Amino acid sequence: MAINRDLVGKKSDPLPFSYTWRDTVVYALGVGGKVDELDFLYEGRGPKVLPTFAVVPSFASLISIAGDLGANPMMILHGEQKIVLHRAIPPQAKLSTVSEVKGIYDKGKGAVVVVEASTVDEKGAPVFDNVFSIFVRGEGGFGGDRGPEAVKADPPAGRAPDFEVVEATTREQALLYRLSGDINPLHADPAMAKFGGFDRPILHGLCTYGHAGRAVLKGACGGDVGKLRSFGARFAGVVFPGDTLTTRGWNLGDGSWVITVTQQDGKQVLSNAIAEIG
Question: Catalytic residue positions?
Fold first, then answer.
């Protein structure tokens, strides 16, 4: 059955999301938080909230849109992710998210669905925005617009990175990360992983994204959560729990940083990544 292209331009009803410091700490641990990052792991120090926690309150909107598309869930891949921060995320809040399908594009072998989700607090003040890109395998070829060209974000040729963070994920990483809301059995159940074409459960793309966000916070922001304005990336490869991730960043001098994330074998798993630091 063809996906529902009539969704373009339609906004969702507001989706509420309440959380406490416990949820922000579980998220921080889920994306690899360590004891030397105690400000993000201990309520006695706030706690501070990792900027990439922005994906958690808006995740339900992504699931809702994916369901409304009418596509086979096993054919849906998370293609790209971007967060835009309007201020530091509080350690507890009651938020509301409205999402809108901005476009459904024909990529031949599949369709790309671009969703923007805006999240506000109880007073209606913006907290953060998310832009999701979903790739639906087998749903292309309908004669539609191919959409805008991807923004290239290649490291400057011949330049060493301005920071590099090497960190091993744990074999339990996906089991911990799923406690933040993405309970897809592909990341936990070996049988479901094999059904999806993998030898064993894979790590959530957004978990890899969160690891990269922590590295950006350390390497480009000096640990200051208020400095990260936005962070966008394309999911370029599969990561398994236990893999080692290397995040590198190049300062372009205008507030923009090119970011790459590779596995232990050098394969790139996050590409076309740009962080805006202010």
Answer: 182, 187, 202, 205
